[in-house]
Amino acid sequence: MQHRLLASLAAALLLAGCATTPKAPTASAGPVYEKGMVSAADPRAAEAGAQVLREGGSATDAALAMLLALNVVEPQSSGIGGGGFMLLADGTGTIETIDGRETAPKAATPQWFEVDGKVLTVAQAIPGGRSVGVPGNLSLMAQAHARHGKLAWKRLFDPAIALARDGFAISPRMRQYLDRSRSIAAMTAEGRALYFGADGEPLPVGTLVKNPALAAFLTRLANEGPKAFYTGTNAAAIAQVVATAPRNPAPMTTADLGAYRAKPRAPVCTTYRAYKVCGMGPPSSGATTVQGVLGMIERFDIGAMGKDSPQAWHLIAEAERLAYADRDRYLADADFLSVPVAGLVARDYLAQRSQLIALDRTIPAAEPGTPAGATTALADSLTPDVPSTSHFVAIDRNGQAVTNTSTIESSFGSGLMVNGYYLNNELTDFSLAPERDGKPVANRVEGGKRPRSSMAPTLVYGPDGKLRLAVGAAGGATIPVQVLRAIIGVIDWNLPVGDALALPVLFAPGGTQVFVEKGSALEAMIPALKALGHAEVIPRELPLKANAIEVIGGKLRGAADPRSEGAAISE
């Protein structure tokens, strides 16, 4: 179990379905808001989404415009070279999810990350071609727009094209990432020319960067649609760049790209204190992890304890340890093996798991449980989650809501570039070792398979059946606990959404170590947490970045994590 913890922590430190549950009432008619709202990790992307709403676009239109704009101004985190997950809800409570997660090339095998009989380390596996999955974001965008877009496809590209063509200023956060990840960001001549000076140093904060290659390609996508990505010269360029990468070249073909399809999936939903909580199913582990923790702490009066109670955070930590143990054992692409999703979020299973948690002591070893539908023939995964992701939320006047997480995996992805955008290193979200102790790992590499993700776009409905909260986060394996913190803050501690996102984060991904956000109120609770039995409580700078919009009193109130450069903007 300690190995599982160390894998998750190592990834974080590279920077520093539904269960059978009581149904909440369904709203009879959709709400109508005076104005729509967006929240994104960069104010320029948020403004792109808000402008789309002002022009009569849907929440889907706004989300897609933000995805494209983020590709330009936050190239270290997300974009069309990566993939993501979208939850989309109409005003009456109907929820759709789209899985735009990347896939492994057809040629991939469980030994994909073995060289000369040895499994590569994460740091060795990230740079170059072997880590690149077939990008999914354009296919996700096309499906979402076809069903729920109101403005023309071409219009959604305008803000991103303008930013790439006319230039954008390097923000402090981007400059920090360029410095931390310079070997990846500057691996190719294209990356060096865009973001580094003649002296080899990252360009200073405030420098205006123009990306004409990306502007030209976005214009092509706007005019020709997603076929311009998955076929023709762009597909050939991706396959060529991956196959001839200066590091870890790998066999990806134009057929791999042409075969890619984003997939509609069933949402994973359960209830928590009369609230309905819905998220993304496998290959995402976000919903089962978030809902698993909530189900285990539900019998405790976390609300009465309050946000300043070490005992409340102790209970959250214990539930996280158990939920992450289940995640590491069972979660993977459900197209390749049977994932016990319903069993993992079933109320009776979580009640049973909750009985392991005590108010005054810790669980000696947080082991995986045996939910209904589970197989015992699997080993725990040592899968890292390298954090560099973006989240954005949009709700329009008619009550359509979108919560979308998009990623290229680690900072600047694989370091490879095509047409002005970085290609992901998403395949390092697979377990690099295909088996442990003679047992296969669920999240091992296989051709066409989608790697497990921690991304957790989430929608929460109140006891009245109406939307209460749309939320999500970035930050690798910390994503579920960031979302969890926001839900508890809003529901249990009755905080405005901005205050909920400002709450500190506690990360207990198995093992015996608990990581608390350095410099936060949780750091002062370390002696109290140790007194409750947590032997190792360690302050860390965690990769935190969340965005949300809440509905309260028929009005929208948005927020971005105060640790980020994000913004919430009303139309």
Report on the architecture of this protein.
The chain is α+β, with helices and mostly antiparallel strands and 571 residues long. 34% of the residues lie in helices and 18% in strands. The protein has two domains: 34-96 and 108-260 and 397-435, no CATH class; 265-383 and 454-561, Serum Albumin, Chain A, Domain 1 (Orthogonal Bundle), CATH 1.10.246.130. The protein has 22 helices and 24 strands.
List keywords for this structure.
single chain, 571 residues, alpha+beta, Serum Albumin, Chain A, Domain 1, 7-stranded antiparallel β-sheet, 6-stranded antiparallel β-sheet, 22 helices, globular, disordered N terminus
Shape type: globular
Count of alpha and pi helical runs: 22
Q: Percent range for helical residues? A: 25-40%
Briefly note the structural class of the backbone: alpha+beta
Low-pLDDT residue spans? 1-29
| Spatial gap, N to C terminus | 48 Å
Query: Strand order within the widest sheet?
Result: 8-3-2-12-11-1-24
Question: Hey, roughly how much beta strand do the residues contain?
Answer: 15-25%
